[in-house]
């Protein structure tokens, strides 16, 4: 991506003063009328005019970006253009489902389309860099940012990270970065942010080298292989060393082992926070530690700009390292075309969601939904129903974009479930009731069928939105129980940004649809699934615990020396709770359909393979037959898992190593094929220098439609 610009970068570097170099490492926030920030607008303009600013975040709108860009390009000494960045996590004007929902589609094309629509909207509004995709694997449903992740599995997070990076940037070689409908991506948060103790945001992460490399790092490596132009450091410590000052993760792994040529941006005041972490003495120390560990650009706090000259003078940072950081930033600015065309054509701005973009968001929403229960025949609803009650606290909500929605959230409310049901069943008498129980019960008793819309408002997930209890918010379980007590048919629609503990009401609910926060077209996406226009085919990208006390509970867990054995439920000395049934409420990879499917055994192209053959690139093909045995067309996600049953590092009982979502007509069959290579069968050890190993021994290969798959064939690695 960056090779062709070396000459231009060097020529510019040679002309820059130390102050101008330090200025390129500074990103400030915009507090104009286009978004929140820290009161830095006047300072931002002055710094741009003095040529002491590299980037600005929280700004959008070509009028605003061009005005600031003109100051930097036409009034500063060297005219180095600014790089504008913004959090476009799942949409700019057109808000797609939250990333956790998109992951539930098990269809990376959903994420790629989000990224492509978002890139076009973002770039045309003056911004050429998004702080996305977030790829923090997490086993913590209390953590609010699980909504922004792709869940608990590294392989799934990696697949979606790659899809987003390619959607934002185009080809992996960076050749499209200068085009009018691409933006630079940012792989975040580096690294292991999702491991925060207690799920409490910004909290300690103490992780072994093997778990760092087998669980948290793989999505970042995949994103970089797809050409991710930038990386953002994480707020947490990693084994006692804050990520913003962690030379092992940034210098040794990211820039050393992986050869990352882009740049690392700090998170918001993350460099300053090295002081609070108890890692830096003061601002100068924080600047030194961050720069020397691998941070290239400082977001909002100004320690590098304030103290860089003195740090250089007394040799605490080197000119080489300073030049390296500046070069990394300049290379991306050249690659984005900023030097050739620093301004945005205001007449070409995409000023709102196009019908095609809305349709894409609607389809993404429906593809992301997971049918958790469907006893009897409540779903799909009949569009000829004479009367439908739509009740619950979120029934008429238009705030369903989810956390980290883009600027569109301020201009384009979500479509409510209530309005969408009315549109989907124009002949029905649609009765609306809120959370008031008597009113809801009356509506349920008066209707043929009830849609009960409950869950979390988006404010209950996202950054700094950690819940110590992940049950439905107060009053909602009572509401469900009251509607259930009417004996009338009903379906529960969950709108939430995280796994929830689903209470005793679950068994009395004939149908439960996990709809997440589906974005701008929320209501229509829900109605498409409720009325069967879309047969739900999503799967859970995260485990649903039985109780908050069970956390952490996740599918890719170690077996322990005393695993619980379902066939021996009363066995005492095993890993279980005295007061809770074993296992999750719903496992990773779980999801139903309006039709039924069967999957066959995983047939291996060979039952044995040599380590050196794998290391030479040979693979084992695994084929799995799948049949639609029901009356309706539908989607199934065939999943492939491996378990290395005896290894020098205790291996997870399942590791996802392949998935494919297929659409089958009633009675139709197909065979899904996967390939297992060294990277699928091996694992990283605890060697800090990074040792990946494929060991001889038995590997059980599972295939099925969730992580609870039992169909198994054994592969022997020799
Ligand atoms: C926030 C988030 C990060 C975001 C940045 C800029 O604190 O941690 O994901 O990109 O600040 O808004």
UniProtKB/TrEMBL annotation:
Keywords (A to Z) from UniProt: Hydrolase
Keyword match Hydrolase: yes
Protein name: Glycoside hydrolase family 3 N-terminal domain-containing protein
